[in-house]
Amino acid sequence: MSKVLMKGNEAVGAAAIKAGCKYFFGYPITPQSELPEYMSKALPEAGGVFLQAESEVAAINMVYGAAGAGARVMTGSSSPGISLKQEGITYCAGAELPCVIVNMMRGGPGLGSIQPGQADYFQSTRGGGNGDYRTLVYAPASIQETVDYVMLAFDKADQYRNPVLILADGMIGQMMEAVEFKEAKKIDLPKKDWASTGTKGKRSRNIINSLYLEAEDLEAHNVRLEKKYKTIEENEVLYEAFGLEDAEVVCVAYGTTSRIVKTAIKQAEAKGIKVGMIRPITLWPFPYEAFKNINLNAKGMLAVEMSSGQLTDDVKIGIEGRLPVYFNGRTGGMIPTPESIVADIEKIAGGTK
Question: What share of the chain is helix, strand, coil (3-state, %, to 5)?
């Protein structure tokens, strides 16, 4: 298929429809509002249903209902809107309901701004709602990756019976790039014989629930969930890495920030500094295994992000104290510049930082 020029939010919608999404429940919020706008026209034309809910809370609970009936369903929002959905997300995780949730992050905390941010990292990777649960989190760095991982997210949600999060930022949602809608690799998916679709007199009732009043029952449920999360950790880690073996400095960044870092690396290498990079594509599970390949004679690690250092915590866990970890970040909708990153790389390589 030939490439088409699409805005990020619209590409998310087109990818979801190609992946078989039949229901979208959402509420407009900048910088993701083009997603529900696109779905309101394109999804009914594809035989699906779009519904603008009265609130984010209502939208995620509509997702719960559609997912419980076995349908492919998605919702989208931006940072404070995702915060409102957290109760529903933990309910979906507790009831093991497959669904896809898109967060086009903006500056925070609170209502914050409409400029891009990455400060929802903890909320996304640690489980923003109550209880012991995890969501698989993809962090695309381009519109093409956004298309690819939205389509993959539907399959992984069904494979593991679990919510899957697409964590991007306002730049991904608002920028335009050429994309190709490739045929997705076929995955053998389990039948949805658990779905609540009516018995038709042929089987016992399916009950979709996350409420366990007996402590023993809830513990057994949580143990089973934890086993599933371990399987995801073993099989679903994705990352990009280069130059780790002989790097003087190793940068870590994800999403659109990683594109800025790559520009900075080219500028640093032009000055004779060897710089490696780890770009997590799955933020949970985090690619800790990539850190085993880092040259321990390097001078240090540099985490670059649009937050106050949330990614930096995972970088410190990954390197296990073997190298010093430094931080370059902006918040509130401000974006790190290649010049500031190169300046930090030079200080680390020169031993002055």
Answer: 40, 20, 40
